[in-house]
Amino acid sequence: AQSVSQHNHHVILSEAASLELGCNYSYGGTVNLFWYVQYPGQHLQLLLKYFSGDPLVKGIKGFEAEFIKSKFSFNLRKPSVQWSDTAEYFCAVSQDTGRRALTFGSGTRLQVQP
Amino acid sequence: EAGVAQSPRYKIIEKRQSVAFWCNPISGHATLYWYQQILGQGPKLLIQFQNNGVVDDSQLPKDRFSAERLKGVDSTLKIQPAKLEDSAVYLCASSRSSAGYTFGSGTRLTVV
Fold first, then answer.
1. Which tens digits make up the pLDDT trace of A5-43?
2. A10: nearest CA partner in chain B
3. What does B53-77 look like in DSSP terms, one character per residue?
4. Residue contact A104–B33, C-beta within 8 A
């Protein structure tokens, strides 16, 4: 069975600081990788996804993530955060074949202080 | 395209009562998922449908939870009887392929 680990449960940053959220997964086969964001009171929204090709993936709102296969990692980055980035961030993985349901990490709550 | 519709948005019930949630996926999306998101945790898959057939219900507490997807479109998730630990947000999602999943706004259930 696959699993996803997010190392940071709660991150507090000042505006304009750089962000990196860690995500590691455990699954030996081919995977699809996702980062979702959940703003307070809103539904999950897709930030970016990786299926194949360039391991550096750019998403919406200036976010990017890098897939490092040897480390089973898919870390999320943003060079300069804004107050509006305050939200919960979830890393998720699905198997490339067979069952395609998403397995989520426990989430990282990001708080950006003005 | 319209999003995944869920209702109700909120529900408060007493323990041992029953409750049902409804989901209408995006038109044409064959796969439908129900997730449970407990406060402070990531969503956990409860059940996955492909059209009206169950693909995976290994994490569904079948002694109290049931779900159906008649005609391969709308789906209903039921809890009977509810326990305090069932308090969570119940999310419905649909997909056409692994390329994209669309989530509904969820139903927030509070069991008192």
1. 998 899 999 999 999 999 999 987 888 999 999 998 888
2. B40
3. EEEE-TTS-TTTEEEE-GGGS-EEE
4. no
